[in-house]
Amino acid sequence: MTSSGPFPRYLPDSTSNPEAIARNDWEAFVELEHLRDHWSVKQWAPGRTGYYWYLTFDDPDLVDFAAEHQRGLGLTGVDPVPSDGLHITVRSVGDTTAVPDEQVDALVSLARERLSDVKPFDLTIGPLSGSRSAIRFSVAPWDPLLDLYRILSACSDELSPEHAPRDATDSSSRFRPHLGIAYNNTDRAAADVIAAVAALRKPERVSVRVDTAELVVLRRDGRCYRWDTHAAIPLGG
């Protein structure tokens, strides 16, 4: 498994079938021999803030579901995601110092227009899996998330064509939806972490409703991601 690029490297056999998605996530995770320190791999300059499209969640069932799994891990060397920090990252937009205010306003306006045609949808969260530097839940189905990614990417590319991908490859092919619950904070062998996650893999899942996309201003506080919502855009207008 390469140390860069999307994880899992390959797309699941089906982006609509929860079992296919969960299986693909797990098969990639158990192949890992080493885990990386998330905070070293994901470089973040001191004081940096950036615009990101997020889906955020405060559903009590999901909060309890995540907390139960965090408690059950019994691992050192991991930083749990706070209960008010659960999210799915859809895509980055750019550093706040690099994106002019008028472009942000135009992006929000265009996204509001385009997302008015997107219906709210439900996701299932679980089972537990992991990546090269984090412990995370599989989420399904991917199809509405991929659609959301394409729409929001098209908005950015339309307003800033000089930063649009130069090749014709669909950039959503690199998007791997997931919901993290803990970040690994040390370089180490993967076996013990995989075993701890395996012990918590159960068939139970939690359903959540996605009815809003948020443009957030993201920052890193120590070993934790925090954000302020710049714009919350309802799906379906």
Which features would summarize this protein structure in a list?
single chain; 237 residues; alpha+beta; Cyclic Phosphodiesterase, Chain: A; five-stranded antiparallel beta sheet; four-stranded antiparallel beta sheet; 11 strands; 30% strand; ligase; Cyclic_Pdiesterase; 2'-5' RNA ligase
Describe this structure in words.
This is 2'-5' RNA ligase. GO terms for molecular function: ligase activity. There is one protein chain. With 237 residues, this protein is α+β, with helices and mostly antiparallel strands. The chain has one domain (35-41, 48-234): Cyclic Phosphodiesterase, Chain: A. Helices cover 31% and strands 30% of the residues. The chain is built from six helices and eleven strands. It has helices at residues 18-30, 38-41, 60-73, 101-115, 143-159, 191-200, and strands spanning 34-35, 50-56, 78-80, 87-95, 121-130, 134-140, 179-184, 188-189, 206-210, 212-220, 225-234. The strands form three sheets. It has a five-stranded antiparallel sheet with strand order 3-7-6-5-9. Strands 4-2-10-11 form a four-stranded antiparallel sheet. A two-stranded antiparallel sheet has the order 1-8. A hairpin with a 3-residue loop joins strand 5 and strand 6 (134-140). Helix 4 (101-115) crosses helix 5. The longest helix is centred in the middle third of the chain and has 17 residues, at 143-159. The model has no long low-confidence stretch (mean pLDDT 94).
